[in-house]
Amino acid sequence: MRDHRLLLTVLVLPGLLAVLATAVVAATIYHPGRATTAALTADPCTGPAGADAVGVVGIADSDTGGRSGGWSCPAPEAAVNAKEALTLRHGPVMAALLTKYGDRYCLPVGCWTRLSQERAEGDFTVRYGIDDHGRRITLGTVTFFVEDWLQGPRIVSRRQDLTAGGRGIREVGIEGERLYLSGQCPRGCAVGHGTTYDYRVPVDRTRDGRFAWTGAAYQGEADVAYGTVIHEFTWRDAAGRPGRWFIWLKGVTVLREDAAIFFYASPDHLPSSPYQTSWRPD
Known about the structure:
Elements: H1 2-12, H2 17-26, E1 36-37, E2 57-58, E3 70-74, H3 78-101, E4 103-107, E5 110-116, E6 119-132, E7 135-151, E8 154-166, E9 169-180, E10 189-190, E11 200-202, E12 211-213, E13 218-221, E14 226-237, E15 244-250, E16 254-256, E17 262-264, E18 275-280
Parallel strand pairs: 1-4
Antiparallel strand pairs: 2-3, 3-6, 4-5, 5-6, 6-7, 7-8, 8-12, 8-13, 9-10, 9-11, 9-14, 14-15, 14-16, 15-18, 16-17
C-alpha cells in the first residue's frame, strides 16, 4: 500500500516523476540498478524434436520404454505476458515505473518483480507438448503467478495460480521448499535436506478456469545469510497422455543483515539455474 500512495503523489506532481519513481522502488537498504532483461535466445519451441536449445528439455523415446516423450520450453511471449499481468494487477502507472526504473528482472520464461523489501512476485509462461516420431507437437501454454511476502526470516507464498491455454490440463500440483545459498551451494541447498516441503497438493480449478491456491501456498523459515524459496508446478495433459510436465522457479534472494533484518535483494540476484521446465515419464 505504501507504493500506491507514492504513485498518487506522482500523479499530482508530475514534475517530480523521476525522483519519486526511484523512491518507490529503491528506497530500501538495498539499492539496485535499472531494470534489466536477460538476453533472449531464439524460440526453442520450434524446429525438429530433440533440438539442442537453451531452456528446453526433452525426454527421448528410449527413456520412456518406447513411448513418445514430452517437452516444455520458454514461450516466446513470456516477457510480454508478464508485463500485461503486471499492468492488470497494479495499473499502468505502477507497471510503467517498475518496468522502466524498478526492481524487475526477466528470464526467458518470464519476469520477477520486487515491489518492496518485503514483497516479490513473478509471472511466467511456458509452452509444452510431445515428440511424436520426430515431430514436435504443441499441446498448449501454461502461465504461472507467484506472490511471496517476507516476514522476518519466514517467506510466505501468499498466492499462486496457473492458467492453461490449449487442449486442457488436469491434476495440477504445487510444492515449495526453503533453500540456503553459499559458495558451496550456488544453486541452493534444502534447509532440511529435502524434508522441508510444506505442500505437495493438488490444486482445484476456479470458476474462471484457473488453478489457484489462495491460502498460504507455501511458508518456510530459516535464519540464513542468503536464502530463497523454490516453487514447483506440475500438470498432466487432459487427453490422458502419459507423463507429467513441470516447471520450478527459484525466488528472489533474501539477504540477512547483522541485526537479523531480512529483505529481498534486487531480482537479478537469483541463484544459479533459476528455473527449469520439462516433462517426466510416469
